[in-house]
Amino acid sequence: MVEAGRSPNIEIITNARLEALEGKPGQFLAKVHQAPRFINEDLCTACGMCTMYCPRPVVDTYNERLDITRAPHIDYAQAIPSSYYIDAKACLRVNYDTCNLCAQTCTAGAIDFSQKPKKLELNVGAVVLAPGFGKVDDEVLEKFGYGKYPDVLTSFEFERLTCASGPTEGHIVRPSDNKPPKKIAFLQCIGSRDETCGNGYCSSVCCMYAIKEASVAKEHEPDLEISIFFMDVRTMGKGFDEARKRAQEKYGINVIRARVPRVDQVDGKLALTWTTPDGEHHSGIFDMVVLSVGLESPEDAEIISKVADIELNHYDFCKTSVDSPLATTRDGVLVAGAFQGPKDIPESVTQASGAAAIASELLSDARNTETITVTFPEENVELEREEPRIGVFVCHCGVNIAGVVDVKAVRDYAGTLPGVVLYEDTLYSCSQDALKSIAEKIKENRLNRVVISACSPRTHEPLFQETLRSIGLNPALVEMANIRDQCAWVHAQEPEAATEKAKDLVRMAVAKARLLEPLDQPTVDVTPSALVLGGGAAGMASALSIADQGFKVVLVEKSKELGGNLKRLTWTLDGQDARKVLKDMVKKIKAHKNIEVLTEAKLESISGYVGNFTSTISRKGKTDMVNHGVMIIATGGREYKPKGYAYGDSPRVLTQLELEEKLSKGKSFLKNARNVVMIQCVGSRGEDMSHCSRLCCTQAVKNALKLKEVKPDLNIFVFYRDMRTYGFYEDLYREARKKGIHFIRYTPEKRPEVIKQARGIKVRAFDPILGDDLEIPASLVVLSTGIAPGENEELSKVVKAPLTSDGFFLEAHAKLRPVEVAVDGVYLCGLAHGPKSLEESIAQAKAAAAKAAIPLAKGKVAVAPIVSRVNQDACIGCGICESLCPFNAIRLEKAGKRKKAQTITASCKGCGICASHCPTLAISMGGFTDEAIMAQIHAFSPEGCKEE
Amino acid sequence: MAQENVSMKENDMAQTGFEPRILGFFCHWCCYAAADSAGVSRYQYPPNVRVVRVMCTGRIDTRFILEAFKCGADGVFTGG
Amino acid sequence: MAKSGSILVLGGGVAGVQTALDLSELGYYVYLVEKNASIGGVMAKLDKTFPTNDCSL
Prior knowledge:
B: alpha/beta, Rossmann fold, 3 helices, C: alpha+beta, elongated
């Protein structure tokens, strides 16, 4: 998020709404209305004085109305833009022309009541709609006592209660009496799977977030007793089932399968009654009830639909289709995130990248025509070579540092240190005006080393490095002393000791700064092409996207023809002809001038690094070398082959895909059929594979409906554990129930058995409602077999990309980098990543294509300058460094008669393991040389300590 | 992984009011980040550690630790 | 008339911000239009995220 605030090519327009969208793809004119903030973003230092002095209280919507703030405020400390704003509805000055207190207290002069609403007209080539989701109506919540009983909270409110920066600093208390609750109930499906409120869909995220919130609460208060009331436990995301199991075991959360119809208050406590699947009635008393509210379509969905001229679906979410899940009904207008349908963070992030890819396909001719490139003046090498002239800037950070540390004393102490020629204190060193003033002072005093004594280099070093670059100094010549996060904030009660610590940290930073050296900013050229492994739906979609973005693609498929698992699909989940989807894709691939298809081919080995990979592909007994800049893994998965259930013993036992194949050839095989039994979770969720295969529930419902359509008098029984027909697929599930398909829950202890008889087969299973075993003579048994990983293990070794315990490829970060793997320049999509629907595979393929196209579009990859460097004269070629490097970033190469170590800068992460183990001290780390670290250690002693 | 080698025993410290001077080597990606978030959460801890940031604990040469003791450190903390 | 190299992203939540970041890296100029006073959306309000319980910011 911070990156978005810093990018010169992202213009953030807040308090704004889209009013009109005219024109056509490539040439839209967007009209945007922007309301004033009344505080100048460039001048505001985020000191908070205005909030302190404002007499006008307003409820804090950021803290879900659990707290109070004032008319001028900032939503939260790390907000971007990092500027306060005035809530125009509450402000006395705006509404009654009185007060003006804030303007008088603002020392920066940032408050500006003359600001007027702005009308902006923007020329854009494409539009991406990502307005998020809306809130379930209070009316729906009132049925559950919300608003009437103070201890009934929404899950969003509860989230703020468990948060350390929330209104109660993370203490869970009952709003009615501020006492900690002992028993909490979570009620699921509030405003979801509920036709009475118009939301027939499943919100997809509430089951997992309820378990998360319950776990966090148990971590805070281990004695809490928590019960969650589910209809079905829908934790079908990657790794979610496992996390749910862990949470249930570790924290002892009660899972109750029941829908609670209402909440009553009895003696200040909350009373619930419910009925379990065995037909028994129960009741219980709780101290707090949390309503797991669903995701509603955005409040302004209709306005957006009108303004952008796009269609909505019957739930007022954006209308899309399975084969192009990110396209709206208007060309050039795309959609991502919860507006496309309820979804969690990883999927939203994936769709976001996917939408970026489609916009990039559309506008590839116009790439780089409107971006701003920041240029820097040439480096003043002579000044850098002079004796160190150090400037020290000690930051108050408002009261954050100065409230504890004696900033002036630290500043004066810095003046006594060797090499320091300028020492000053600043109110907020990171504010725009302070940065400008620091830059001027560096120039005036001809400084060539700078120490910023403020907050953490992790968050702010790039900002100060940029300041140095802007005035012709190498960015490596700045050092930070962290006297806020690791000093003032953590020693708030000990101002003297904190001041002493701050002095020590400044002394150590100055000692290091004296030895800082300018570092090159290396870049490596990129081979502008991609290698895509796998010719299924995901591989084809990503290959097409990269090719449409203007880059060459080599598509490697192991079998004789393209298509993968899509070849076996007859209907998509939204009823489209899957074969047409496949045919269209294959046609486009074959016709594309940027795509070369290699069938019956296999990746044997890969070497190199992001931007410059060389791969060996074997094909029909021959091997070829391919140079490419990036690679996408889209090798797919396979249908799990069932064990048991008389599969293979009787022709009447099929898998869902086999049923689909039969159905597509006509209905004659159903002629004498009476009973069809489907069994869910065959192989999945702990039977053989531990993961949930995510799509089998919907697939079973889809095929059951198809069977009913071709033969309405069929009796269909579906044995399931949890029906996970998430999102809009819930509609299919409801339709199936309405059409009389029988759904019977089983537990893993009592799985249905398929028994082969002399004539035909029968299924024996326990029916929890009857409380007894059922026997159904079956004309057909259909096994919902789930998805097993493909041949990932071998590929994982070749690429050095790790797998999950389930055998799927592991993404670099579940939420922030869902389509990247740990190896830079290698991306991931489709079933190779985990079980998912066709729609999700295509969205993910587009996302992988966006990420893969980034280095290709840039043409160069920048390398962090903190890499290792080998002094060739001192290196004895022992190879210790090569054997230890975790990134294969240093290797021995022939130099004259001997072998010497050499760093592959593009792969080096700067960890320094090589340097610390080099027996001849031949390896030096950029920014962290032995000398600099030693100087810091010596400066640790206040009296100084010299090497003997 | 976090190792602490403090040369004084705890009860000695309580009796003498001894305040150890500890030098910490913190990995940029984990321990240093954790120390930052301790600050963000306003956790309070004793002000006895001074920090050298490194990009990885693998960067720490034995010489660094020995040098720290030579320069008067009562303890060395490596966090990664 | 040539195509524009700019893109409008409506919504500054996690999806909008990610789209904007990717587009800017792909060589396009982005207008990120947000109805509130700061970007971040709902994700900025979450304390921890599932299943790894990472901090959400």
